[in-house]
Amino acid sequence: MCASGGRTFNFRRTNTYTHSDLTTMKVKVLSRNPDDYVRETKFDIQRVPRNYDPALHPFEVTREYTRALNATKLERVFAKPFLASLDGHRDGVNCMAKHPKSLSTILSGSCDGELKVWNLTKHECVRTFQAHEGFVRGMVVRFCGSSIFTIGDDKTIKQWKMETPANGEEEEPLNTILGKSVFTSIDHHYKDPVFVTSGQQIDIWDEQRTSPIRSFSWGVDSISCVRFNPVETELLASCASDRSIVLYDMREAAPLKKVIMTMRSNSLCWNPMVAYHFTSCNEDYNLYTYDMRYLDKPIAVHMDHVSAVLDVDYSPTGQEFVSASFDKTIRIFPKESSHSREVYHTKRMQHVICIKWSSDNKYILSGSDEMNIRLWKANASEKLGMMAPREKAAANYNQKLKEKFQHHPQIRRIARHRHLPKVIYSQRNEIRIMKEARGRKERNVRKHAKPGTMPLVTEKEKHVVAVVN
Amino acid sequence: MAASVEASLEKKHVGNKKRPPKRYWDVTDEAGKADEKKQKEDHEQTTKQNDQKTKKRNKRRNRPGGKHVISGKSDPFPGSAPIPKDKLDKFKRGEKGILPSRPQYKLRDVVARSEAATELAQKQNARYDLLLPEDAGFLEGDEDEDTCTISQDDIADAVDITSGSKYFNLSLSQFGPYRLDYSKNGRHLLLGGRRGHVSCLDWQSKQLMCEMNVMETVNDVKWLHTEAMFAVAQKKWLYIYDNRGIELHCIRRFNDVLRMQFLPYHFLLATASATGFLQYLDVSVGQEVAAICTKAGRLDVMAQNSHNAVIHLGHANGTVTLWSPNQKEPLAKMLCHQGGVRSIAVDKTGTYMVTSGMDKKLKVYDIRSYKPLQSYFLPTGASCLALSQRGLLSAATGDIVQVYRDVWSTPVTKPYMAHRTKGTVWGTHFCPFEDVLGIGHGEGFTSMVVPGAGEPNFDGLDANPYCSAKQRQEWEVKALLEKIQPELISLDPGQLSQVDRSTWEQRHQDKVQALGFDPLAKEKFTPRLKTKGRSSSGKVEKRKKQVAHEDQRDVIRQTVEDRMKIAKERKEKEKKLAAAASQKTALDRFRK
What we know:
The complex is a heterodimer.
Chain A: E1 15-18, E2 24-28, H1 60-77, E3 82-87, E4 93-98, E5 105-110, E6 114-119, E7 124-130, E8 136-141, E9 147-152, E10 156-161, E11 175-178, E12 185-188, E13 194-198, E14 202-206, E15 214-216, E16 223-228, E17 235-240, E18 244-249, E19 257-261, E20 265-270, E21 277-282, E22 286-291, E23 300-303, E24 309-314, E25 320-325, E26 330-334, E27 342-344, E28 352-357, E29 363-368, E30 372-377, H2 389-404, H3 409-416, H4 422-448, H5 459-462, E31 464-468
Antiparallel strand pairs in A: 1-2, 3-30, 4-5, 5-6, 6-7, 8-9, 9-10, 10-11, 12-13, 13-14, 14-15, 16-17, 17-18, 18-19, 19-31, 20-21, 21-22, 22-23, 24-25, 25-26, 26-27, 28-29, 29-30
Helix pairs in contact in A: 1-2, 1-3
Chain B: H1 2-11, H2 29-43, H3 49-62, H4 85-90, H5 105-130, E1 138-140, H6 152-158, H7 161-164, E2 168-171, E3 178-182, E4 188-193, E5 197-202, E6 207-213, E7 218-223, E8 229-234, E9 237-242, E10 247-255, E11 257-263, E12 268-273, E13 277-282, E14 287-293, E15 301-305, E16 310-314, E17 319-323, E18 332-335, E19 341-346, E20 352-357, E21 361-366, E22 371-377, E23 385-387, E24 393-397, E25 400-404, E26 417-420, E27 425-430, E28 436-441, E29 444-449, H8 469-481, H9 504-515, H10 537-582
Antiparallel strand pairs in B: 2-29, 3-4, 4-5, 5-6, 7-8, 8-9, 9-10, 11-12, 12-13, 13-14, 15-16, 16-17, 17-18, 19-20, 20-21, 21-22, 23-24, 24-25, 25-26, 27-28, 28-29
């Protein structure tokens, strides 16, 4: 018995045979044992032998393309971002705060001075109390999550306990500080018992004292927003009504520098992963991402809103941010892209005042004028809940395919398509026409001007008036 | 293997020290050194053995970079196991990309990552390929014996019972000659007799699924994507039946069909008719995708290139034309034979095309470059050609079917196998994933065993001969979801993954559209009208010429200036380099 194949199990099927002329031949014919390919009992899973030989899998690219096209279409089919609406406020929601330690807790303050604590998993309000008379202008949860600081139109700063008071107990603030003027914004230091408020000037407060430990001002009377840097915790940024964004260092006596823009910024947010990047939202419908070291030109101008942008918040990964606008939509931008990747709107949502990106990077919360807080998915077509391993693998594979073929015109068209309310759609077209007209005019002027007298100004440089050190 | 055993028997002598067998890891230098050391040690006396052992141990411990193992022995298989190069090449997908010289860190990172992933996949595939369970069949005779003289009966007797039963004859003398088709996974056989007999069966278990007589001439039969449906080209129309023989559709748009091909990934049934029309039917939605008038008369020779889904048609004037449904004209036209083309076969990888013609020649072409590779002369000419998955070619000459091996690489003189059938051969088809060639002839059907014809290892997600009903249903849904659109059929199936480099004109046009004017446009000079005879045509021409000259001078001046500037820069650079070379630094004193 001999065989030319090297492996032992070939012996069984290779036969030597002496036929009529007394010569020998060696023959082996494909003969599969079905037991190797069929499951033994019906309780087993089916056997699927694989052979990855490319010759057995023709049309690799075109089949992948078809899969990518299907995945993109399905993504749009499953894009249902709206999850829930938290209603209960009796006036517009003016401010929100995330809990630093609990993912399911969110706080909101409304224009009638009421403060509500929400449980997100149950979509219900767990605590309500009257914090201020008039608006709740701002609030922040202490970094340890034990207490809340709120400011209101009644010129007070109040500190509240995080725990719900026991039955029969009155809602009483832990501390109340009476200020000289109305506060507009509050933020807490990320490590120390220090918080900052803005109003006529920037005040830095120690939690134990009733007067500010220091104040900054740089020639303005109204500062609308102040934020601590989450990484370089001693740094502060504020935006004021004189169209400026001012940077401060708590360790220094005077503000660091300021940049003056063509229109005023409403709010800003630091990038939690890149310490020196922040994004400000502006009255001129745009958002600007700055590097705090080079303020003369923003890194990116994010355009797409058709009305003033009111609030912005970064995702915890620092790759994306979400913006809330007066045009009744919220948009999600990749941090370096000039156009949004996503727009959310509903028929009933009015001007969106405040926006937060949840700390698990999965949800977005928007508070709007018509007294509701809305819960959205950050990734519109993502499936929530547990996924089976095969499901997860399929989702990953589809994601990769979409990435691979994203530039093909048909796939790009489907992936980019978003429905917009008619008003916003027409406004966007109007804005585009205006912009084109301006560009045309500028071009014509340049064409007939003396060469060199009209330098080209990029979109990024256009909106910065001056940088003061 | 037997030879190696004998050799080792011969070599073994009493005085010789037995050397360990050569292993692949011996080729590394370090291992070779270790081997030498061992030999040296063997020569030395055993008295110092203990001493040496301790030394050796110490040496091993102190060896730099070596891993310390508790047993003290070094790893005999250092690193990951090497992969044979041919296996790696099998799974290679194109060349590595060339990065631009600019330091685009982000792009570089992306490219590096994706290339690492590709390489890993390639290696894993190659490793997996070594583990595939089945080996291909073969047939070898004695040294001086031709394998083509071995009869089918001998082979059937020699092999096991299951394989032996794959050689059988169906005597169907009434309604022949027969055309046939195997389903995609090779389990089912469809027979269509010229005089109307159509039957389909599970040929391995010999279980008949349906049998009927359509009472009409049958020109061709073809399975559709599963074994649940098949198409029959009858005298007038094209019919679709299910596997119980129930007529599902009669498609009157497809008339006088002579030959059919089914493109499984596109769900297209391509038909060639006696009126010279090539038509495509999308069987998933039942729509006619394209109807092309080939203007080449009766079309009775047809083949498909399963690599790129292009249809090959052979014509009476000796040409072979290549067609896609997207174009009314042929993609390519090749003059292959003097006299008509009798049959065409295209190999699985889309590299080779084999044609036979009325001039009794059998020719092999490389269809990537449309070049002839081999030309053979057959005394009677070949009528039905078929190529197997592993590249065996069957050619029918009258009632003899010959099977050839390696027709494209080396000139073949003898067939690999041969078999005489009872009637004239009308259709041949290799069964996928089996060592079987089906022959339809005037007296019925013969299933012939051809060792080494079929692909031994199938892919369970693509075509599974052992799939259950549930698996088949799932496969059908998946296959329908990834149906390739007919617009994507082209000569190069990988075209979609290539970069679409737009031409300069196209980019310029886009720029003009974006800007609203042409930045490179030059206004044409129009001479002003002057009075008092100064605008005579001669004068105007003169002025035009003057301006043209001026423009030309400007261009020349510019180029000269540019050239001077470049030369000056180069000189300065050289000067700087020379100065830098002559200057001594403080560290130069240490230089030898």
